[in-house]
Amino acid sequence: MTWQPTVQVIELAVNPTFSTHWLIPNLREFNKLNPDIIINIHSLANIGDFLNREYDAAIMREDFCSPWSEREYLFEEEILPICSGSLLSQPQQKLAVDELLNEFTLLHQSTRINGWQEWFALSGISSPQVNNGPRFDLLSMLIAAVRSNPGRGAIAPVCHSARSG
């Protein structure tokens, strides 16, 4: 932590998508309650970003944590497949697994490369071949790719916080 006159500064490393969509929008209340603390937010896309810089704290997935770090569990993630709304002919339409594998390009997040394997395993589906398809560093990039509907269509597994608000 660095100190400025009467102000405490905390250097916080955070996943870019989490910081943009949850942390920053929710800082207002913290700032009201703690006017003497400034939080500097730094992008943390992978574990190397954390290990190569000096931060006071980080908010990251457990699999990014180093074995010697102190950890506090914040919330559970749920893996959900997403696709462009234009790919479904009816609202609430459900897709069969063979449709997922044969008709859609499976997109991957580089920092969660096993996302599809996790989702299929949680769905009780044994080891489909799901490693093909483009990879994106950031979740926001992955979502943009899904929205742009490249090729035959794209679908991606994303994690959604149980505490999304």
TrEMBL record:
UniProt GO MF annotations: DNA-binding transcription factor activity; sequence-specific DNA binding
BP-aspect Gene Ontology terms: DNA-templated transcription
Cited SUPFAM superfamilies: Periplasmic binding protein-like II
Every LysR substrate-binding domain range: 9-151
Similarity remark: Belongs to the LysR transcriptional regulatory family.
Protein name listed in UniProt: Regulatory protein for glycine cleavage pathway
Organism of this sequence: Salmonella enterica subsp. arizonae
